[in-house]
Structure formats: C-alpha cells, structure tokens
Amino acid sequence: MNLRLRTILAAAAATMLAVVVLGSAVDVLVARHLRHELDRSLRTRAVGVAQLAASAPALLTTPGALDAPAGGTQALVEVIDSKHRIVARSLSLGGRVLPGSLAQGAITGDTARYRTVRFGGDVLRVYAAPLATVSGGGAVLVAASTADLSNTISTLHGLTIIAALLAAGVGAGAAALLMRGALQPLTRLDRAAGEIGRTGDSSRRLPDPHGADEVGRLAATLNAMLDSLERARESERRFLADASHELRTPLTALRGNVGHLARYGATPALVADLEADAERLARLADDLLTLSREEAAAPPGEDVRLDELARDAGADRVELEAVTVTGDRAALERSVANLVENARRHGRGEVTITVRVDGERALLDVEDEGAGVPLRDRERVFERFYGDGSGLGLAIVRATAERHGGRAYADEARFTIELLRKASELDGHAAGQELEKGRP
Fold first, then answer.
1. Which one, 139, 333, 385, 439, has the greatest CB density within 10 A?
2. 3-state secondary structure 116-142
3. Phi, psi (rounded to 5 degrees) for 248
C-alpha cells in the first residue's frame, strides 16, 4: 500500500476506534443509569405498598389498587403474608403468580433485596421488601420487565456502530482530502526528480513548494544536494581538463624528443630532456593518484606524534610542543613534506616548522622568510593545478587535513595544518587542569 492509502486507512481506523470506545463508555453509563432508575422505581413502589398495608390494609384487595407503572413500565405486585400466602396482587399479573421463593429472604430474614429472574418468556427485575409486623408481617414483591431497558441498550449499541462507521467514512474522506493537498508537492518533486534522473541534467532544480513545512525543507535540502553535485561535477570537469592540459605539455615534449631521437640518435642533452619529461609525468601521475586516494580514503585511526613527525621533515629550524593526534602517519608526512618543498621552491630564506597546542587543536606551521602569498590568492593556492610543478601539492595538503577532520590555510608566508588533538590526551589535559585548580 502506498502512503496515501495507509494514511486513509489509519485515519478511518483511529476514528472508528475512538467512536467505539466513546460509544461503549456511553452505553455502560446509560445502562447503569437506567438500571438504577428501574431499581429506584421498584423500591419506591414497594415502599408505597408497604405503607398502604400498614395504614389501610383493606385497600390492598381493592381491584386495581396495586396497578401502577414503575419507571414507565407496568409493575407487577404481590403481597404475601408471613405464611407465604398471597394476600393481594395487581391485575397486571393476570393469571400468573410470582415465585414465592423470591419473598423468602424478606419474610424470614427481614431484609430487602433485588433479584433478576426469568418469568415465562420475559426477564423481570424484582424487589422484595419485608412488611412491618404491625401489618402482620410478610413481604411485598414488586417486579417490572427489563425488555424496554434491553431494547434501549440495544438501540444504543446500534447507534454506536452506525456512528463509528459514519465517523470512519468522514475521517477517511478528510484524510483523503488532506493527503491529496499534502502529497501534491511530493508528486511534483517526484516527477521533477525523475526527469532530472532521466536527463542527467544536474543544473535543473526541484520546484519550490513555497512553504516552510517538511516538504519545503525537503525540497530545499534536495536542491542543496543538487547544488553540491553540480559543483562536484564541475570540479571534476575542471580537474579532467586541467589534468589533460598538464599531461599534454610533457607528453608533447616527450613525443618531440622521441622523434628527434629516432631521426638523429641520442645525445646527452636529449637523454636529460627525456629523463626530465618522464620524471615530470611520473610525478604528476603519482600526485593525481595520491589526491584521488586521499579524497576517497577512510577516516584515520593511528596515533601520531606530530612533533616527532615535524622533527624529521628536513626544515632548517623547528619549534616543537609534544602533541598527539589521531591520523595517518604516511599522509601527514607527505603533507608536511609538500609544505616544506613549497616553501623552498616559492619562498626565501630559512624554513621553520612550528608545532603548537591551542586548546583542543594541534597546529603545525611551515614558514619561510619570503613575502608570502598575496591575500587574494590564499584560497586559490590550495586548488588543483594552481602554480607551477604538478600544481597538486597544496591540494593534497588540504585533502589530507580535511580527511583528518581539520583544515589547511595560508597566512602570508606561513602555511598551517590544523588538526584535533587525540581524545585521551584531551581528557588527561582536562584532568590535570582540574587537579591544578584543587591545589592550595
């Protein structure tokens, strides 16, 4: 079942269940009230007969004296003396006689009680009450049929079922209308997404539902994802174009030198050119492979002493603080070597490596004595194929830093790799600070 049908069925079932529960509660309350009212009317009628027996016993045998309705239902009345003989009875009984056993407790135990008995083809509610000894003792039985009460309760049950079915229909209709309006934007998004998938045109965007609800946020998120995909595709296209351009130059030179070699033979200068071209191609291929692996590699999990790694990087001067990071030693060594090589190629004077701690961060700086990178180029220097050489060294540095959850940036003549310190080292540092605070 699709979402719309499931929602409609859920709304119908929930509405029906709510109405059934409410109707059942009403049925119970109404049935209890009706039974209470019937018992009260029987008791009132019995009290009236007992008073009549005490004040004017001769009237009990007057035809019709005991015939009166009890709670809207014709009452059946019998007056029995202490020897279980019928003294008087209502005309409504006709030829029937109420069971004498119903009066046993009222005569012998002098207690009133209610009973529900089957009488012929009917169900009676009977109230048996003792008569005062001044009246000679005995008991009065007042009974009434429960048929009207049962019919009323059955009618309520039927109305509850009908109301539940109608409410379920109304709930399903309301849910259908609501889902129709709610799913229309999703249908348009689905259609637009299918069209984008069919054409492969990442420049297209999903329609804006013009709402701040979940559908609107979903459309905004998907469009942001398409923006990222388009940027990634454009970056890939630029990368391929730049790589093709960078490869074309040494390949062209290599083909020319090979042709010259075929025509005129080898000379020391020609062999040197061939070796230089081959070296440049190999370095470019290695850098391309390294960058590709770095961007697709898993998060690192090795403990690396950043100060020890910096000490072996071949800088002219080092200023080190001991700090451990969770990283990939080989990748970090390559990144530091790239920064040192970049400083020697483009900078001036001595190259200094500094490893320092700043709260939760570990920072490795590579700095030379040159003028540094102009402000407008400090972001571009980390782009692929920017500058001479393979143009990938700083791009590899940034990719490595980002894979480690950090970043790489330039500030004049200083290039910095910023990483997070190892978690256990941070915990130990925090514990040490707390201990220092507790000392007098």
1. 139
2. EEEECCEEEEEEEEECCHHHCCCEEEE
3. -65, -40
Sheet with 414-420, strands from edge to edge, namely 317-320, 352-358, 361-367, 414-420, 407-411
With beta carbons less than 8 A apart as the criterion, state whether 432 and 381 touch: no
CA atoms of 96 and 176, how far apart (whole Å)? 61
Answer yes or no: are the C-beta atoms of 224 and 206 closer than 8 Å: no
Q: What's the DSSP call for residue 305?
A: E
The dihedral through the CA atoms of 39, 147, 117, 106 has a sign that is positive
What CA–CA distance (Å, rounded) separates 180 from 307?
63
In angstroms, the CA 319 to CA 209 distance is 57
By the 10 Å C-beta count (0-12 exposed, 13-18 middle, 19+ buried), 401 is classed as buried
Residues 373/338, Cβ–Cβ less than 8 Å = no
Q: Mind listing the pLDDT tens digit for each residue in 128-176?
A: 888 877 567 788 888 888 888 888 888 888 888 898 889 888 888 888 8
Between strands 317-320 and 352-358, the pairing is parallel
The structure tokens 């402000």 sit at: 375
CB-neighbour burial class of residue 43 (10 A; exposed 0-12, middle 13-18, buried 19+): middle
User: Is the pTM of the predicted complex or chain greater than 0.85?
Assistant: no
248: nearest Cα among 397, 385, 381, 399: 385
CA separation for the pair 121, 101 (Å, rounded): 19
